[in-house]
Amino acid sequence: MPSDNSTSHSLTLANVSKTYPSGLDALAPINFSLYPGEFVSLVGPSGCGKSTMLRLVAGLTEPTRGKAYLGSGTTKIGFVFQDPTLMPWATVSENIQLPLKLSNMLEPGLKEHVATVLDWVGLTDFRDVYPRELSGGMKMRASIARALIIQPDLLLLDEPFAALDEFTRAQLNEDLLHLWQQEKWTSIFVTHSIREAVFLSNRILVMSPRPGRIIADVPVRFDHPRDPGLRNSHAYNDLCADIASRLAVHMNGEER
Description:
Structural class: alpha/beta
Shape: globular
Mean pLDDT: 91
Order of helices and strands: EEEEHEEHHHEHEHEEH
CATH class of the largest domain: Alpha Beta
Largest sheet: 6 strands, mixed
């Protein structure tokens, strides 16, 4: 992915679109930028290109047209997938170290660094445990830790909590938000849950049905730190309803 040294943004997508060899148009031209330290969520209907956009940002696929530019200070990208994809024959600690081994980034102080990341995600007591012994929530914590071990400048999360029960999902939302407040990575979070997006984000990009395009860029102005009580406030529920109505309009093929 090109680097644009002239920008203060962590990431800029300039007229990015994606058409697959089959002829399927996944993304219409997309334009947006992220400032360092922002937490931005993508919401939209299934198949609208949210995951495709993350893969473009990560350099896992190329845009058909347009460019994705990383800012000059954005060098390391962490990716958390919907499936934890942990190696079953390796312990939690060994799984977390995998990106460093693949990138030849192993260095003195690794043991202490792993211990710090395990503490961040609440897995200190599970460092020598194998994935088969973990709950779904613990597996996802390990997957997040694996993305954080490289100390990313940009953290991409593709529906990481979609398969979890409501209680575990809410707890991981709070834990992730606490970590973001502490470390201030620039983050892009894909979710189908409007309520999850509003709780976590500084901004929400609302996407149309395929081919995906951004139909709204919604600021979320709730103060930090955010606690679970926010979910019961009128302002929170009003913003959730507003985003849902924007999606409904475009799902029905109408225009504002």
